[in-house]
Specification:
This protein is α/β, with parallel strands linked by helices. It folds into two domains: 2-149 and 238-254, 3-Layer(aba) Sandwich (Rossmann fold); 161-226, OB fold (Dihydrolipoamide Acetyltransferase, E2P) (Beta Barrel), CATH 2.40.50.100. It has helices at residues 7-18, 43-46, 62-71, 238-254, and strands at 2-3, 24-27, 48-51, 54-59, 74-78, 91-94, 111-115, 127-129, 140-141, 164-166, 171-175, 182-183, 188-192, 195-198, 203-208, 214-215, 220-225.
């Protein structure tokens, strides 16, 4: 059971499904995913999605989700709270990337794995998987914590913090461009609450939060890729695959 269905969680689901394990994803009623074209959370609003051959469908109940997962697809269920399901899964992976522990406990399942900073292996969970790019990316930590959150995205194509688009104001998001579009530096690509969002540099709009959502100021709502590789908008990233491989290793170690 994966808590969260964003792009990193999708890499985890892809790796676990390679072992033919049934996977259920728990999501919010209104996912805040930016890289929607490569995120299983998109099934919440679209009903289903396929990413790199991995198909996910939205389900209406825990029983329906279990049946779908055992049939070979990834089941996506709107259930922000694990306790609301009334079941005890074999494995729980906290893939919400909140950078802190929201409510995960080590006794949530026989095996509990968490992604990134905010967790301590042996206290909150049985293992933590490193999510920071670098030599430790995807490493399984059985004692201690992942590297702390720096607050700055890892460089991509020579760009770092400026490749992330954040809401300039409180309000409803409206996009003038779509994921996969080439954008030029300074080009208006959307707005929040009437305040324009412009491309920080020339690149590809790799991610964009769902059009029409009400967001607070400062929330991450988009991502521009300076590499201008449109194909990458529809592929699970190398980072997500590495993190997913780490989760798979952790589960195999702990089961």
């Amino acid at each position: 059971m994966l808590r969260g269905g964003g792009d990193l969680a999708t890499g985890v689901a892809w790796q676990l499904r390679r072992l033919r394990w049934p996977v259920v994803v728990l999501e919010l009623p209104e996912p805040l995913t930016v890289r929607r074209t490569v995120a299983l959370s998109t099934a919440v609003t679209e009903g289903e999605i396929e990413v790199d051959g991995l198909r996910a469908v939205r389900c209406g109940s825990a029983n329906e989700a279990e049946a779908a997962a055992r049939s070979g697809v990834v089941a996506v269920l709107v259930a922000p709270q694990l306790a609301s399901l009334g079941c005890h899964p074999d494995v729980v992976v906290d893939a919400r990337m909140a950078k802190r522990n929201l409510d995960t406990a080590i006794d949530d399942a026989d095996v509990v794995v968490a992604l990134g900073p905010g967790f301590t292996a042996g206290l909150d969970c049985h293992a933590v998987v490193e999510t920071m790019r670098g030599p430790d990316l995807g490493r399984v930590i059985r004692k201690g914590s992942a590297q702390p959150d720096t607050g700055t995205p890892a460089p991509l194509g020579g760009r770092s913090a400026d490749r992330v688009l954040r809401a300039p104001a409180v309000g409803r998001v409206g996009w003038q461009c779509s994921i996969g579009d080439l954008v030029n530096e300074g080009q208006p690509i959307g707005e929040v609450g009437g305040v324009a969002i412009c491309a920080p540099f020339t690149g590809v709009l790799r991610g964009a939060i769902r059009d029409g959502l009400e967001v607070p100021a400062g929330l991450k709502i988009g991502d521009v890729d300076p590499r201008c590789d449109t194909d990458a908008c529809w592929k699970i990233s190398d980072k997500a695959m590495a993190v997913g491989s780490g989760v798979r290793e952790a589960v195999l170690q702990l089961r």
